[in-house]
Write a structure and sequence with these properties.
12 helices; 2 domains; Aspartate Aminotransferase, domain 2; 42% helix; alpha/beta; binds pyridoxal-5'-phosphate; 16% strand; seven-stranded mixed beta sheet
């Protein structure tokens, strides 16, 4: 059976060159980076070279990149340390953030009794920036946690505008850039952001490795203890092969960005045009969306909603839900619930997310399959 992978916002296939790089490191550089002998030093050198590579592509200092297991860990660490150690009294976020942020914020609210404000999300998925400005004008030690690209709809938030507002009002800015690192140019020297987080598996790297960017002079305290690795901020023996794989993946992502982005834009446009031809009343969820994510409401009856992902899966097509079927009832995604009308929420929304590995033939197969449902 043909297999079509259109779920690249969930994770991406690893590039062969990245696998090769990791295998080489595992075979030849197994030393513990904390060991002082040459085998250990050689592993340490791989980590530091990787850090420099990542910093070069993101235009920051290597010392500002801290390796973590995932973006989820990095977000937990940053928000927790900000509240516990910087005396933050309020977090401003939004209801369309990834659960990595939302659940962390909720836990911190319960534990530390901090205030939490959610910026209004408009029906096109954008944020109410005027409201954010009003919220920020209240004098209270604040960290703002707002994502760059929404992982479900692809809606792009204006990182620069948010950052400027934050800094004018003396608030810190943490930005979840999981969906944009490796997929768009980010100049951290210029962007007014204090923290960003990333996971390698979103840009054709390995799973279980990510990093935080922590702006120079911001001194966080560790999430857990046990060693001096990563300036003592992230104890535990480093995953050398994963780190090397992540740096290689980021390097390849940026080296090929222009051509791969061009192909993906053409594919997304083609997919939307073909969907409109096949289902004239299809609607796209969100405006100003990132080039690799397309989220649509299909004009199918609510009864078909439950079966649609299952049917696509049976035909070898991997896409993601906009609505989840839980014990027989259809529960909308927390992101779409903020944006869509009651009627549209009952219909099947699909997130189709592309990579440079996808082809027009795969899109044709998706459309033909959808028409048969
Ligand atoms: N933030 C966003 C926007 C995401 O899309 C994801 C993953 O889906 C995460 C955070 C969490 O990434 P990870 O599970 O790799 O920590």
């Amino acid at each position: 059976m043909q297999k079509v992978y259109l779920d690249n916002a969930a994770t991406t296939p690893i590039r062969q060159e990245v696998i090769d790089e990791m295998v080489t490191v595992m075979q030849s550089d197994f030393g513990n980076p904390s060991s002082t002998h040459s085998i250990g030093r050689s592993a340490k050198a791989i980590i530091e070279t990787s850090r420099k590579t990542i910093a070069r592509y993101l235009h920051c200092n290597a010392q500002e990149i801290i390796f973590t297991s995932t973006a989820t860990e990095a977000t937990n660490w940053i928000l927790r340390s900000a509240v516990r150690d910087f005396g933050i009294k309020r977090i401003i976020t939004s209801k369309v953030e990834h659960h990595a942020t939302l659940y962390t914020v909720q836990a911190l609210q319960e534990e530390f009794g901090i205030e939490v404000s959610y910026v209004k999300v408009l029906s096109d998925g954008s944020l109410d920036y005027a409201e954010l400005n009003d919220l920020l004008s209240l004098e209270l030690k604040t960290i703002v946690s707002l994502m760059h690209v929404n992982n479900e709809t692809g809606v792009v938030h204006d990182m620069e505008k948010i950052g400027v507002m934050c800094h004018q009002n003396k608030a810190l800015f943490h930005c979840d850039t999981v969906q944009s690192v490796g997929k768009t140019e980010l100049n951290l020297q210029q962007l007014p952001v204090d923290f960003i987080v990333a996971s390698a598996h979103k840009f054709h790297g390995p799973k279980g490795i990510g990093f935080a960017f922590v702006r120079k002079n911001l001194v966080l305290q560790p999430l857990f203890f046990g060693g001096e690795q990563e300036k003592g901020w992230r104890a535990g023996t480093e995953a050398v092969h994963q780190i090397a794989g992540m740096a290689k993946a980021l390097q390849l992502a940026y080296d090929h960005l222009n051509s791969e982005r061009k192909n993906i834009i053409a594919l997304k446009n083609y997919c939307l045009a073909e969907l409109k031809k096949a289902f004239p009343s299809v609607k796209q969820n969100g405006t100003n969306t990132f080039y690799n994510i397309l989220n649509v409401v299909l004009p199918f009856s609510p009864e078909k909603t439950v079966m649609i992902l299952f049917n696509l899966d049976m035909k070898g097509i991997a896409v993601s839900r906009g609505s989840a079927c839980q014990s027989g009832s259809v529960k909308p995604s927390h992101v779409l619930a903020e944006m869509l009308s009651e009627d549209d929420l009952k219909r099947p929304s699909l997130r189709i997310s592309f990579s440079h590995y996808n082809t027009k033939n795969e899109i044709d197969y998706l459309i033909t399959t959808l028409k048969e449902i």
